[in-house]
Amino acid sequence: MKKKVLNLKFKSTLMTLFVVLSLSLSLQTPPLMTQNTTQTSLHVQALLANLISAIDKDKDGIDDYTDIMLGARGDALNMPTYDDKYWQGGYPPDNVGVCADTIWRALLAAGYNLKDLLDADIKSHPSVYPRTGDPNIDFRRVRNLRIFFDRHLVQLTLNIYETEQWQPGDIVIMYDDFHHTGIVSDQRNFMGIPYLIHNTGQKDREEDILMYAYYHAKITRHYRWIYTP
């Protein structure tokens, strides 16, 4: 009986030590992992130099690609409430938006009026755009943007592991029905895959989501703003 009690005490002591050790590791490991991951991410970003556009449309001293990315980030930091309500005149207020609003706001920050460009293209080539007819909403539909971008922008790889081809300010469209879009960030994860600036109403509007999108949402378009009329 005494031997059994000693065995139980020994096992209990071992279990206590195991719990204490596990708690100690759980408290210490995340900061170390975060620090190492951050350092790795910074190292990756240093190796993958950002592409600079030769064009500065709005003459503000910042190239187009950077301007587009910063414009998208400004919209993300503003945290517009996700609302696809129809607005007379087209433009929703600054505190309201959907994923497509991030795109035109980003381009407007670089000096490009996407609504005007799209409206003109629809007017010149109406048969190319099957779901149009109302300029108050046409530029806020990703499916219309996809047609416009296919016609006028440079298309790039859909492979997220070709990391050097994913640059800040690039435009991404997801899903087979082309219903979501976002702007590539200048922030990258430890693998060199960039973050995406987008709006689905989520808490973090600039997030490490492209790998998930690659496998689960399907990335269907990747563009760079090299506009050809």
Architecture overview:
By secondary structure, the chain is of the alpha+beta class. The chain has helices at residues 2-47, 64-78, 99-109, 114-124, 142-152, 210-217; strands at residues 81-82, 96-97, 154-155, 171-174, 180-188, 194-198, 206-207, 219-224. The strands form two sheets. A six-stranded antiparallel sheet has the order 3-8-4-5-6-7. A two-stranded parallel sheet has the order 1-2. The longest helix has 46 residues, at 2-47. The chain starts with a helix and ends in a 5-residue tail after the last strand.
Question: Which key phrases capture this entry?
Answer:
single chain; 229 residues; alpha+beta; 6-stranded antiparallel β-sheet; two-stranded parallel sheet; 6 helices; 8 strands; 45% helix; globular
Radius of gyration: 24 Å
Helical coverage, percent range: 40-55%
Helix-and-strand structural type: alpha+beta
Query: Within the largest sheet, what's the order of strands?
Result: 3-8-4-5-6-7
Report the uncertain regions: 1-38
**Distance, first to last CA:** 91 Å
